[in-house]
Amino acid sequence: MYNPSVSGGNASSVAGSRLFIYEVQGLRQNAETDQMANPIRKSGSVFITVPYTRMNQEMQRITRMGGKIVSIRPIEEVGVASNAEPTPITAPVVASAEAAAPAETAPTQTETKPMTQAAPKVASSVPVNLYKPKDPYIGKVLSNEPLVQEGGSGIVQHITFDLSEGNLHYVEGQSIGIIPAGTDEKGKPHKLRLYSIASTRHGDHIDDKTVSLCVRQLEYKHPESGETVYGTCSTYLCHIEPGADVKITGPVGKEMLLPDDPNATIIMLATGTGIAPFRAYLWRMFKEAERAKNPDYQFKGMAWLIFGVPYTPNILYKEELEQIQEQYPDNFRLTYAISREQQNTEGGRMYIQHRVAEHADELWELMQKPNTHTYMCGLKGMEDGIDEGMTVAATKHDVDWVEFRKQMKKEHRWHVETY
What we know:
The chain has helices spanning 4-7, 31-34, 55-64, 232-238, 276-286, 288-293, 318-327, 352-358, 360-367, 382-395, 401-410; strands at 19-25, 45-51, 68-75, 87-88, 137-146, 156-162, 175-179, 193-196, 210-216, 219-221, 228-230, 245-252, 265-271, 302-309, 332-338, 372-378, 414-418. It is built from eleven helices and 17 strands. The chain folds into three domains: 4-88, Dna Ligase, domain 1 (2-Layer Sandwich), CATH 3.30.1490; 137-252, Translation factors (Elongation Factor Tu (Ef-tu), domain 3), CATH 2.40.30; 265-418, Nucleotide-binding domain of ferredoxin-NADP reductase (FNR) module (Rossmann fold, 3-Layer(aba) Sandwich).
């Protein structure tokens, strides 16, 4: 499809009249900036209002002046001429960064394949492959926020893309594909990687015009050379600048969809960036703005998240999670497994499978309810340990856990997305 953000032409769509706030740092004083109406400082942030049709030109102008775009945030749609000059804004309008962190279970050397989710205009429909690799959607990066707090390990970013120029919509639990820029060692375009969507169908701004991902930069030692190897797509995304264009495909996936039943019990087992779809679930269930947007889905059931990470600073979306727990103590339960800081009953590291084993009897009882759904997302290594813990609980009732799990799968109550 025609995309003015790529071609540089004027937009005739609604997106063409949208305004965005650029947060810019490091603009230097020179002859050009002296003539600008915008307030320029040698340090700190400047906030500039930019119409969609001038986003690329404004990026180039800011770069010429030595500035760095920290984030881009859409503001309410207003009519703006395609040749309008950007105007200053006095108050910062930027989404706050969340504290969060990487994955945790057994070590892995494979590229992270998170899931994605987006929201369709019709809540009951499940869109699939609206954009394919040969004709991807070109989305612009609005923000790229660090999630790992000081003292944590690895790099994990919360990245938000603008969807206002196309028809890319999704539902919670789906994934999108990202095609990294550039070519591989054979000179061919990179293959796409799938990532879990970390936002609800309405997006982080609750306007149906964005999609967000939670991405960890893959980093490991090559088993033969000992050299440090970085994942192609994860590195590309973790270091991408606001304003950059990204090729997006999808959405895909029906395995991790939430039930429509607002009284359901939702058990979520996550390691690291496997938190992505669960963040979307929890926003849909509990965020006030989301609930206002979804009058037909007012969650009244019980949600339980068991989340494995290496260190406390690696608890992704920690403030969000604990705020929901505080506001909805009767409907949301939060349990951490912090491997480098906590010990299991045997004195070893506390992984998610140990937490599951601790609470296996309670989890087993919840799973007997016909409207209980269990979701697992994260590293593949978590599956066997969770099976082991639940086997002990099932055996107390003379039940074969594997057969019981298979039955839940047939009933569409057991959902797994591991990588």
